[in-house]
Design brief:
Layout (H helix, E strand, L loop, with lengths): L1 E2 L8 E3 L2 E6 L2 E6 L5 H6 L4 H21 L9 H17 L3 H12 L14 H34 L7 H10 L8
Antiparallel strand pairs: 1-4, 2-3, 3-4
């Protein structure tokens, strides 16, 4: 795969080269020898053709069941689910009628789980618990800061104060920082 220095006149396959744009850069590579004609005619692609035919049949059956849905329930992901289920059933050897019946069973509305009734004050209670936890964390942080300052003060000697005064002086200013 080579990178082109200037933009090509056109993208596509010509003169045995495939010119395309990827990730914002123009690139070129040798054209593939695989063609539609080869896939449709050669024996090497027999399984590819068989699987493609099975997928086409599964898609038609899924479409028939999907069209039975009301517009508010139609979603493309549901159609893909039907197609995948039909493909599995056809691979297992089920007939078209059996596949349609199985797909129709998937259409049924799912059973709804009974909702638990929440107390009216549950949201308020949860918010209150969150605030309390936040306040406790904050107090713990304040305590850690105070204790680390006490440790630092205890390490530094009070050289200019008498021993009895220095002890009270070291902790007097920390009382104002204590959490309330």
């Amino acid at each position: 795969m080579g990178t082109l220095s200037r933009p090509p006149k056109k993208y596509g396959t010509y003169h045995g080269l495939c010119v395309y744009r990827m990730l914002g850069k123009d690139r070129v590579r040798k054209a593939s020898s695989l063609t539609g004609k080869r896939v449709k005619e050669e024996a090497a692609f027999k399984n590819t053709r068989a699987w493609a035919g099975r997928l086409a049949q599964a898609s038609r059956l899924a479409r028939a069941v999907y069209d039975m849905l009301s517009p508010c329930r139609k979603r493309h992901s549901l159609y893909r689910k039907f197609t995948g289920k039909a493909m599995k059933l056809l691979t297992a050897g089920a007939t078209e009628g059996e596949v349609v019946v199985e797909l129709m069973l998937l259409i049924r509305l799912p059973k709804r789980k009974p909702r638990k009734k929440k107390a009216r004050h549950a949201a308020v209670k949860q918010e209150t618990e969150r605030v309390i936890v936040h306040q406790q964390r904050r107090q713990n942080t304040d305590r850690r800061i105070i204790s680390s300052k006490r440790r630092n003060i205890n390490r530094a000697p009070a050289r200019y104060l008498p021993s009895s005064i220095s002890r009270t002086y070291k902790f007097a200013h920390l009382d104002s920082m204590a959490p309330t």
